[in-house]
Give the backbone structure.
Amino acid sequence: MFLRAIGPEGRLFKPHFQWLLPFCSATRPQQSDDTVSTISAFLKNPHWEKNQRLKSLVSHLNPLLVPKIINLHSEDAPLCLEFFKWVCKHSTYCYDMDSRIKLMYMCASDNLYAVVDKSIVYLIKDCCSSHDDVLKLIRAVEELRRVYGFWIKYYCFSLLLKRLAKLGMGLMAFLVFKRMAEIGFVASEIDYRNVINALCKDGHLQAALTFISRVLKLGFDLDVYIYASLVLGNCRILDLAEAFRVFALMGCGANSVAYSILVHGLCESGRLDEAFGLKEEMSRNGCRPSTRTYTVLIKAMCDRGLVDRAFVLLDEMAKNGCKPNVYTYTVLLDMLCKEGKIEEANGMFRKMLEDGMNPGVETYNALINGYCKEGRLVSAFELVSVMEKKKRCKPNIRTYNELMEGLCKSGRPDQAVVLLRKIVRDGLFPTEVTFNILVDGFCRAGRVNAALGILQSMSSFSIEPDGVSYTTLIDTFCKIERLELASVVLGTMMKIGMCIDEVTWTVIIDGYCKAGKISYAVFLFEKMIEEWRLTMTGPHAFNVFLHVFGEEGNVGARNSMLAKLLKYGLVPSVVTYTILVVGISRVGDMAELFAMFDLMRRDGCPPNIVTYTAAVAGLLRRGKIDGARNILVEMRKDRVSPSDEIYGMLWDK
């Protein structure tokens, strides 16, 4: 593979990242049967969980010893379960779902089936917070059946269906239901509801309708829950007309859940005015908007950058006696962080605490991300320390990814690697995103050799480099004008059968254009579309050529490329139009420039401050001072306020 063949100077690369190797071999203190006896004695005392000595022992307790301790108390299944849960929270070994499942396997191997049964219930209720976690547990349950002959009871199946419905895992819910029927368990009405709800959440509406027909044959009625699920299913496939038809069938049974689903569907379709109208209709029909209703609308406002309207809704909630929940605050806090308003986000966080709420991992992650973007890494690390001390809000891999990205962007990728070593020792495992952050960090620092070393270390975790990893390298090689190495990386991607998207192609085309090899870039671009049948989803690659041809003053080539963009059914973006505006303003054709502004408005892509700034700069370079001043009139049409840069350019003239 090319990683072993090249370094940044093209010579043989030899891995020197020896400090990456000890990730999974952290030294632990040796423990003996004395430890088992000591801990077992502590468990006989009341309030054992508050014993500081016990916490110290358990923090580094070897997982192999846990079943031995549980075995000594096997007659007290509730105590065994509490100890199982307690170990999972306090041990540096038992951190994630994989560790908990391994511990459950060990209990099964010691025939502690009562503990296994209760631990499965615990894992379903408290630990399955993602699709991956649930799938791991389902595989573990099947493995327990295959190896130990252990079958879970009905209530475990029922709980599992409820969890799958909450996560919207429709097909898996259907398979679990089938398994349940094969074993001989008789499903209850709530089990049928959960399967229907899961299928609808997952967008499998036809499967849900087929399942409903089975429910009706069994004598169950269509209740408000099933109707609400059908409304949700139609919203998922964006068939709002059918969703409203089903909603009408509910009649007076329509509740805030069904209304909120429709409000969310309207927001997803961009029909915000109708969504707000439906909220008002709720009140008129005696169905008060719920926290979920308001939160959906607040998120829609935040997604569109309408900060003021989001906070107006928050005030309205308070007036109507509707309390925001953790998710409501997290949405607002995340928006404030993205806009760089970190102090206001801090205020929102404090307000949550004052209201007696327990922020979740997502809330902390949003604030940590905000700190990292502002370069306030000390504050970010302090917040992580707070999380690490909490029992129910431990940092996850995304938390540490945010920290590593902050370190890399501040020019400290080596410290990011040190952090990675720490979290692996503590039981967390990196993802593709983690490694891509490190690769990008070392590339930004100009240390391509180190970036290649990071890529090589991925295999130690059974992770393969993805398109982002390779594209980062291609971009770096292009920037240091080593196009031959960029081509080697591209060739490697093609050789291993990796799908090369338009982002990667745009990066390498841009590299050739900036190196002055425009003819080859055009050749590669045409081959990419005509021979390799790459589907273009945006105008980014075309923008590269439009910019180059504009710089050269090659109007014919520019217009030809613009025609190709339209031929492939793509819509010019504000960047596309701004590039064209730059070319027109350099020529100084005021009539064509104003015609371009009108075209942008008609296409729903009005000029922004960047567009106007580029136009003013281009006109002033041509000496068209009056024309540049007339731009201010155009700006008023689009309600764009002139920037200090524009005033400065005009003042100098």
